[in-house]
Prior knowledge:
With 145 residues, this protein is α+β, with helices and mostly antiparallel strands. Helices cover 32% and strands 21% of the residues.
Amino acid sequence: METFYSVDPLSDRYRICPNCKIAHMVHNRGRDFCTDKCADDYYNTHRRLTRQATNVPPLANTSLITRDQMLAKNLNVLNHLSIDETFGTKYLITDIVNSGFDFSFHTSRNVLHNTDFDNQCFYISIFEYKILLLTTAEILIAKNK
Length: 145
Ligand SMILES: [Zn+2]
């Protein structure tokens, strides 16, 4: 026959079930859960959460290294292109993007001074490279001498 204890927060048998948060008294002092079902539910949920957490890269790390890594990746793409030393070379934006280039990572963005104020054009710099938008589909990539 089981012994029932009245719920007494001062007792060493008093527990709050980690799963359902219900205060209860335990027969076995090594136990925290009110039922086996709560213990199973808790461990199943906990395991699932831990597994999900391991698939997510740590946020602090990625935000610290992303910009430098992306700039290095962009530079690597540019270094593999053949570029006319004098006039620069035209490329399709889609081809560049497909090689892993990301236009949002550059070392600076500058105004082209030979364009009028209302139609100001910009070029972006990635280290020694300059990239100008020619049409909605084409860019000119030139290398600083
Ligand atoms: Zn419970």
